[in-house]
Each structure stands twice: as structure tokens, then as C-alpha cells.
Amino acid sequence: MYMRLLFTAVLSMGLHAMNPAISAANAASGGSPGSELADAVSRSNLVRHLRIFQDIADRNGGNRAAGTSGFDESAEYVRSQLTAAGYQVVSDPFEFMYFKELAPAQLKLTVKYPTSPLSSPFNRHSVARKGRGPGTAPDRDGRFDPGTNTTAGPGGSSVPRPGSDLGTHPGGNLGPHLGGRLGPRASGSLGTRPGGIFGAHPEGRLGPQEGGSLGTSLSPNGRPATGTDPEAGSAIKVTTLRFSGSGRVRGPVRDVGNGCRVRDYAALRAGEVAKVVRGICMLDLKVKKAVAAGAAGVVIVNDREGDMRGGLTGPQARVPVVGVRKQDGDLRGYAEIVASTMSERRVTRNLIVQTPQGRTDEVIMVGAHLDSVQEGPGINDNGSGSAAVLELALRMRQFQPDRAVRFVWWGAEELGLLGSKHYVESLSQQERENIGLYLNLDMIASPNSIYGIFDGDDSDRVGEGPGPRGSDEIERTFQAFYDSRGLPHTGVDFTGRSDYGPFIMAGIPAGGVFTGADAQKTAEQAAQFGGIPDKPLDPCYHLACDTIKNIHLVALDVNADAIAHAVAAYAFWDR
User: Where are the domains of the chain?
Assistant: First the structure.
């Protein structure tokens, strides 16, 4: 505790004025460790790493998501580069609950069916029969038989049944581990099929119901086409929410408002479809109350413009849970929902290396999440941050820091910061105190970018409060770098939505840079940074178009230099 207090006291005293690296940055002159390290981090190498991440995604179903072969291959690439540079790579494995949508969800408003919702053979979902997993497959008549593809494994997890289309990864290992491979769990291998993608049920996408078409049509890119207004017989654009149950249900639509209170469900009858508006409380609470009240399915209506995305924190839903856009929220009459999903426990990992030189009671940590979402390759989010941390680690081998620098590539950030939470929670109190600060890189090359610096002192008075003591000085360190290059910059809020979150919660000073996600660029930002106002900072955020073509090369280069200067400011301070 004493060393942490001393270190943060030094930060708060104004390290930027005392540090030769930061002084050099302010003077825009060369010769300091910061400028030398920044010079060593080249744009061509950054782009090379990004192209390899893109190639990996292309070979593995278009993504690098945690729990898939795309992530495992990305981790193996990072590991091989670090090993070749002479680092001792530590693999930090952890279990998580994996979810995948096997086929696009479908939602259709219909005229009243001749059968009641309670007697309808279509109201069959993934946990209707005890002991069955969440996978679905069609019967001969086109209906869904819950649990056909999976059975319950140890601890409630689902594992493939004989003849299932859900194969395992050859050997089940997740890449080299310091001191040995990560072998299969006792119950068997938890990897993916060769090729890295779980196949859909044996008969492919959900086909039409006997006697007519069901649900949305598909656009050329495989996404549901925009539906018509929600009238009887119309198909509506719909998204499967994470950890939705699986199956086909239909019943009268019951509007329950925001669905946060028990009394909101007083009028809902068993077998009806609950229509719930997003907001006020967590989705988990809404779905839990709807299921407890007897809802056969749940439709979440977005409370803002755009598709309804997101989901639950775990596979507790026993019914289909889908989302619709705000403009499609006037649902009336009878609804028919089809969802095809699977959930199971898998293993992923963080990768960690540390410089062999430097004191270890004031470690400088730098991290970026390596995983993408399932919807795309994640080259900006967050191949950009991962590439910058990798290139910085490789070039750092040429230097002798006074404080040890620890580089980390997080797994499963897109699933709720799982890798960084696992890491911080596994540290002893002394190990936490030995971390001087944490610097985070997440989305540093958005095409319509800003130069955002996390607001460590809460001087902007927006959103959350300040970071732990010392975070204010980290912010000033980055400000000094951008000022030295004559570049504009702006504060961004510590929302807790990236891997700095667990460090802040543990009282560890944190900071970093960020070029923007799906927020719209304001007219003021366009005047300050250039770009297009009223358009997203990253129009391909969490989409299939987040490819190598989605990278702003200047922002990538500048922000990689910024992190190099910040690392040097603290790692070489004792010189």
C-alpha cells in the first residue's frame, strides 16, 4: 500500500513537468525514450498485424470472437510473435458461457390462430423438457424439437449428442500455455468444429412453415431485410438477443410497459407474448419477470433509434427473447417468434508478458482486448488496439525500462469484460498494489474519428466521476503528447464499458485513448477534428464491415505513438 500511495502521489504532483519524456514531447524534440519508442512503432508493422487479423477472420467464418477458432488463432499469432521476440508468454485461461445464434430470428404478426396459445403445439421452447440443452432442430413436419442437437453436460452445460452438427475442436487444446497446453476438460473438449464455426441444424436455415412462409426475408448479406409496418401478416425486422432461449412460440401480444415491476404483468396470461420497452431496469429483470408470469416469448422494443441489440448476462431465459426497432414497436394481435440458439461453457484466455527489466512494485500495465464480436472481424474493435499493444511490446525489447511494463491481450471483453474481470479478481491485494497504473487501448482507428482521452479528473463533468487518484495525471500525460503535435483532443467519459473498468473498481489509476464507437459525430467535433457530422464515429461498429477497410491510418499511427509516449513517461521516469 505504501508504494501505491507513493507512486500515485508522484503522479498527482505533476509528473508531466518532471519527466524528461513528457518534456521532450512538449518541445516536439527527439532523443527521449518516448520519442525513440514512438519512432520504433511503425505504421507498416501495425498494418501488417491488422492484415493478419483480417486473414484469420476470413478463414474462420468472418470473426475472431471468444470461444471460436478465430480467437484461438489470433491468440496464437500474438503468442508466436512475442515468443520470437524473447518474451515468456503466460496464458491465463478462464471459463465463460458461450452463446451463438444458429439462424436469424423471425417475428411475424398474424391473424388469430384457431388454436389457443396454451394448446398450440408450436409453444415449445428449449427447456420444455428437463435435461435438454438449448439447441433446436426441425421435426419432419417443420416444427422445432427442443434439445435435439444438444444434451445437458456436467454442471448444466450442453454438449453435442451423437450425430449432432455441433462438433468439437480437434484435441480441444486452446494453444500453448506457459508450462503446458490447455487440454480438454474432464467432460471432453470444448472447442469449435474444424473451421471454427458451429453449424446450423442439419437442415440449414429455418425453413418455411408447412403451408406458407415464416418470418423475414434475407438481404444479400444474409441479414434480415427491413420489414413492413407491423400489421397482421407482416414480418418485422428482429434481432436475437444474447442468451435468448430457442424454439417457436406464438400467442397474443401483451404490452407490459417497461416491465420492471411485478404489477406490470398483472394482465399477462400464460402463453401470451410479452412486449417490453427497453430502459429503466436491466433486461435480465424484465425477462425474469415475464417468464415468471407465464410469457411464451419476450419482445424487447428499443427506446431509441436503431436496431435493438444486447442481451442477457447468462442463459437463464427459457423462452425466445428478441428485439425490434422503436418504429416497429406498435405490436398488436398475435405474434409468432422463432429463435434458434445454443449456449455452452467454453474456455478462452488472456495473454500476458512482462519486460524482464524494471522494478516490479510499480508495474506499468498496457492492455487491449483481442476478441471481436461474432458479427464481424473486429479490425478496429479491437484489432487496432491489439496491434498497437503488440507492436509496442515487440519494440520495447530494445529498451531497458526502470519500471517493468506488463502487456496484456484480454479475452471475452465483448461478452462483458470477462478477461479483465477474471484477471483483476484473481490478484492478491499485494499484486494489485504492485500495479502502478493501467493504460487501455480500445478502438484507436475509427474512420470518422476523434482523439479522445479518458477524463481522469472528471473536468468535463460528464457521466461518471473521476478515476482513482493518479488518473488525472495520466490524462494530462496524453494531453501533453497531442499538444506537442499540434493536434486537437477531447475528454471521453469513464463509462466502464471497456477493460479499464475492473482496474478502476480496484482503485488502480487508469487512462487511455479512444476514437469513438457508434455515437454520432457532432458538428462541434467535425469542426475540431474534421470528418462527417451527424454520422457515427465508427459506422461499422460491431458489424461485418469492421474490416481492414474500416481503419483510419493516421489515427492508428498517432494513437500508437501516444501510447508509446505515455508508457515511456512512466517506465523510464527514474532515468
Answer: 38-97+346-468+492-564, 113-165+200-332
